[in-house]
Design a protein that fits this description.
It comes from Rufibacter immobilis. It is built from 15 helices and 10 strands. By secondary structure, the protein is an alpha+beta fold. The protein folds into 2 domains: 1-178, C8orf32 fold, CATH 3.10.620; 273-389, Topoisomerase I, Chain A, domain 4 (Orthogonal Bundle), CATH 1.10.132.
Length: 390
């Protein structure tokens, strides 16, 4: 049964104008700008170069950020016709090949390079309030752990700004290694976890308050949640994000759209899990049937090729476990997670039950067989054959 293709939600953004000057002390490191062009065709080649020339996480993340903002331009033309969905690896390859991207492309490349240089990082999706408007716009940026401390990075805003429909390249290091307390003034993650704050700001506070007046009261042990997140499977991460988004008293439309998409993605996970469980149950059932058929062939030959009692019993008990395994898997499966499996699941339930009944019947035969004197055992085969015909 084919697996469903899992696609991600695409989040475009027009850059906010940034007028700040670049402090001299934040000038990009030489290694970020002097990398041979042959080593920048792919993220793997670039990461290999960085790993061989830089040792610390600080230097690596610095090189990644400033290489990205120096070499990738904001794709203004694509913004107006941006697709709603994308495939991650394809977007990364496209960004590296064209040297153009929207915010999602910047963030995906940043994340990929961090991952390949052994820096723990996460792509964050959320929304911002562009200057001069109260209408939120979706955006993507990143978090990365450097020397045990989490920081936030926005390579899109760090690359420049859009003015009169034209991208103006202007490196802005203010968006490199931003503290969570500073980032929340302009960037609101959909998942409150990625505010990285012990007192997270609500969506409503972000939309209605001046950044300097945000005074949340809720205490959130985000560090503990991050530890659990790091070891969790992708489905569990998605379930947690949905729960945290739904915990907000007021969910604005921009968040509701992402929440609905997250629930659709969760449904895809559940459908795929149902398919996997069903296929595994089918495999276990087939092994049980193969073993049962082997026993029947042995029995039809009156066990002439298996003289020892232990060997004969093993022919049936050794394969009973597969029917039990199939039954246990089917009990774990929730067919409503994938309604196309309803009839198949019901049918397999019945076949497994029949298989277990047949195993039980053959086990009873063996009890009688081994309690009968060897000289008279051959008569049991004929008696059972006659009984089965009646």
């Amino acid at each position: 049964m084919p697996r469903l293709l899992f696609l991600f939600f695409f989040l475009p953004l027009v850059l906010q104008a940034q007028a700040q000057s670049v402090p001299a002390k934040a000038t990009p490191v030489v290694s970020a700008l002097a990398i041979p062009s042959a080593q920048t065709k792919t993220t793997q080649a670039l990461a290999t170069y960085l790993n061989s020339h830089l040792e610390t996480e600080e230097d690596k993340v610095h090189a990644i950020f400033f290489w990205l903002v120096s070499n990738i331009a904001y794709d203004v033309k694509t913004f107006t016709n941006a697709p709603l969905y994308y495939e991650r690896e394809a977007l990364i390859r496209q960004t590296m090949a064209t040297r153009k991207a929207l915010c999602q492309g910047y963030a995906e490349v940043f994340l990929d390079l961090c991952t390949k240089t052994d820096i723990q990082a996460h792509l964050i999706t959320g929304f911002i309030l562009p200057k001069g408007t109260a209408k939120p716009m979706t955006h993507a940026w990143c978090a990365a752990q450097v020397n045990g401390q989490w920081y936030l990075f926005d390579p899109t805003w760090g690359a420049g700004f859009v003015e009169n429909g034209v991208f103006v390249k202007k490196l802005n290091p203010r968006h490199f290694k931003v503290s969570p307390a500073e980032m929340i003034k302009t960037h609101m993650p959909f998942d409150p976890l990625w505010q990285l704050l012990e007192q997270p700001v609500s969506y409503q506070q972000f939309l209605s308050s001046s950044p300097t007046t945000l005074k949340p009261k809720t205490v959130f042990a985000y560090k503990d949640t991050l530890k659990a997140y790091a070891s969790a499977a992708e489905k569990a991460r998605l379930v947690g994000a949905i729960r945290r988004m739904e915990s907000q008293k007021v969910i604005p439309p921009v968040v509701l759209e992402q929440l609905n998409q997250s629930k659709k993605n969760l449904a895809v996970f559940r459908k795929n899990e149902a398919v996997d469980l069903f296929n595994t149950a089918v495999s276990a059932y087939n092994k049980g049937i193969d073993g049962l058929n082997g026993f029947i062939r042995l029995k039809n030959n009156q066990f002439k090729t298996a003289k020892r009692e232990q060997d004969i019993r093993q022919q049936i008990t050794g394969h009973k476990k597969y029917f039990s395994e199939a039954r246990e898997l089917l009990q774990r499966l929730h067919p409503l997670d994938n309604t196309s499996l309803l009839l198949s699941v019901q049918s397999l339930h019945q076949k497994v039950a029949e298989g277990l009944q047949e195993i039980e019947k053959q086990e009873k035969f063996l009890e009688v067989y081994f309690s009968t004197a060897p000289a008279r055992r051959h008569t049991l085969f004929y008696r059972q054959a006659i009984a089965e015909r009646q």
